[in-house]
Write a structure and sequence with these properties.
Helices cover 92% and strands 0% of the residues. The protein is an all-alpha fold. It has one domain. The radius of gyration is 56 Å and the shape is rod-shaped.
Length: 145
């Protein structure tokens, strides 16, 4: 619908609602034209402002998204570092525990071996004594015979 059609429609509307005949050169139509033009300019300006506001909101959203991503990454890295440290501590504790257990078992085995060696030494000394007694008995038997 062009401007002439709108003016004709407006003239008919004024005539039907108010019973007043308005000519095309009537000052009221000039005001209506000015009002219409101001309204169009206002719509255009508001559309520009809305577009600018939308761009600013999108930029803020992107910046907040990046900030949130960076913070999440920092938290994740901190948790990962804490986990690594905890795992290293647990590995150290486990290694010390295993070393202690192995050391204790080796000490027990060495003690048992010393005990067995001591018994073997004692058996060897008794055998040597028995052999000496037997040799003396044989010597006495040989002499007395």
């Amino acid at each position: 619908m062009n401007a002439d059609d709108k003016i004709e429609q407006l003239i008919r509307e004024i005539a039907s609602k108010h019973g007043i005949a308005v000519a095309r050169d009537d000052p009221i139509l000039v005001l209506q034209t000015i009002n219409h033009r101001l309204l169009q300019d206002s719509v255009s300006a508001q559309q520009k402002l809305l577009t600018q506001y939308k761009e600013e909101i999108e930029a803020l959203g992107n910046r907040w998204g990046m900030d949130a991503h960076e913070k999440a990454e920092r938290v994740l890295n901190a948790a990962l570092d804490a986990s690594r440290e905890s795992m290293a501590q647990m590995a150290d504790i486990s290694a010390k525990s295993v070393a202690s257990t192995v050391s204790d078992r080796i000490a027990v085995m060495v003690s048992r071996m010393e005990e067995a060696s001591s018994r073997g030494y004692m058996a060897a000394v008794l055998n040597l004594f028995a052999a000496c007694v037997t040799a003396v008995a044989v010597a006495i038997f040989m002499v007395l015979r």
